[in-house]
Amino acid sequence: MGNERVYNFSAGPSMLPLEVLERAGAEITNYQGSGMSVMEMSHRSKVFQKIFDDTKAKLRALLNVPEGYQILFLQGGASTQFSMAPLNLIGATGKADYAVTGNFSNIAYKEAQKYGQIHLAASSADKNHTYIPQQSQLELDPEASYFYYCANNTIYGTEWQYVPETGGVPIVCDMSSDILSRPVDVSKYGVIFAGAQKNMAPAGLTVVIIKEELAGHELPFTPLMMNYKTMIDKDSMYNTPPCWCIYMLGLVLDWLEEQGGIPGMEAIKHKKAQMLYDVIDSSQLFTCAVEPGSRSDMNVVFRTGSDELDAKFVQESVAAGFTNLKGHRSVGGMRASIYNAMPTEGVEKLCDFIKAFDRAN
C-alpha cells in the first residue's frame, strides 16, 4: 500500500481529518515560533495555557454550553466515568436509574451497583440490543439521583433519537461516539462525557461537561482524582492534563467550524449514513438487524448471514483500500464506523464495493 492512506472505518481510535493531521504535522517540531512541540512544553506555560483556553472556548461555543456548566479535560477514558459519575452524584438519594442498550451502558450499570441502589429503567437485551426503548418504555424512579444512558452504541449500531424526559432528575449521558455530530441542548443534561478518540481527538482525552451545582456532593471515599469538584477548582490541571490531545481537539474544532459547525456536520453525517443504509436495505445479500428508527448515523452494522461470506467480504475490502470493517467480536458481521472525519468519498466507495460484492456473491 506504500504511502497511500486507507479509508479507516475503525470504531476507535478512529480516523482524524486529513487537514488536521497536516496542520499538526507542520507544527509538530516548532509550534508557532515557540521553538518546541506542544508535546514538549509545560502545561503551566503561557503558550499552552492559551491553547487550553482557546480549545475550551471553541468547544463551549460550538456546543452552546450555557452558563453554570463547566468543561473538563480529563484522562482515564469514558470508562473511568462509569465510576466517577456515581461516586460524585449518587449521594443525593443513594439511588440511580440506568438504561442498558448495549455493551458499554451495561458495564456502567454494573459498575454503579458498587455505590448505591441501581434500578434498571430500561433494557434492549430482549432483542439483542437492536432497538432503543421509547419514552413510554422507561420505568423511571422520581427519587433517583440521576438517569444514565449511552447516546450511541458502537457495537450494536443503535442511537437514541430523543432526549429522555426524566421529570427533573439529572441526566448523565455517555456521548463518546456521536458528540459533535448533531446539535445537543446541553441544558437538558446534568453530565455529558465523551472519550475523544472517535469524533474529537486522539485517544487519551476525556471531555466532561457538568452542571456545576452537581459537583461537591461526592461520596466520602471518592478518590482525589475522581472528584469533579477537585477538577473544576483546578481547571482540569490538578495534575498534567493530556496536552497534545487538547491541542488536537482545538484543531478538530477549527476544522468542524469550516464544515458549517455542528448543524453543517449533522447534514453531512446523516447523508453519509442514509446512503449506506439505502445500499444495504436494497441488497439481496446484506441485512441490518437494527430497527430503522433506532439506527446509528455513526456505526452502521450489517452482515450476510454467512460467517464465511462475512470473512470473505472483510478480506476483500482490505485489498480494495478499506480497513477495520470487521464487526465487533461479540456480534460478528461487519461494522462501518463513519464518524465526522470519514469523507463522503469513503462512504461512496464503500457503497460501490458492497454493490459489487452483492452482485458477485
From TrEMBL:
Keywords: Amino-acid biosynthesis, Aminotransferase, Cytoplasm, Pyridoxal phosphate, Serine biosynthesis, Transferase. InterPro entries: Aminotrans_V_dom, Aminotrans_V_PyrdxlP_BS, Pser_aminoTfrase, PyrdxlP-dep_Trfase, PyrdxlP-dep_Trfase_major, PyrdxlP-dep_Trfase_small. HAMAP family: SerC_aminotrans_5. GO terms for molecular function: O-phospho-L-serine:2-oxoglutarate aminotransferase activity; pyridoxal phosphate binding. This is Phosphoserine aminotransferase. Pfam families: Aminotran_5. It comes from Flavonifractor plautii 1_3_50AFAA. Pyridoxal 5'-phosphate binds at A78, S79, F104, T154, D174, Q197, N239, T240. Gene3D superfamilies: Aspartate Aminotransferase, domain 1 (3.90.1150.10), Type I PLP-dependent aspartate aminotransferase-like (Major domain) (3.40.640.10). PANTHER family: PHOSPHOSERINE AMINOTRANSFERASE. Belongs to the class-V pyridoxal-phosphate-dependent aminotransferase family. SerC subfamily. Binds 1 pyridoxal phosphate per subunit. Catalyzes the reversible conversion of 3-phosphohydroxypyruvate to phosphoserine and of 3-hydroxy-2-oxo-4-phosphonooxybutanoate to phosphohydroxythreonine. Coiled coil: none annotated. The keyword Amino-acid biosynthesis applies. GO terms for cellular component: cytoplasm. The modification N6-(pyridoxal phosphate)lysine is found at K198. One of its GO terms (biological process) is L-serine biosynthetic process. It comes from the Bacteria. Its cofactor is pyridoxal 5'-phosphate. L-glutamate binds at R44. It catalyses: 4-(phosphooxy)-L-threonine + 2-oxoglutarate = (R)-3-hydroxy-2-oxo-4-phosphooxybutanoate + L-glutamate; O-phospho-L-serine + 2-oxoglutarate = 3-phosphooxypyruvate + L-glutamate. It is an enzyme of class 2 (transferase). Homodimer.
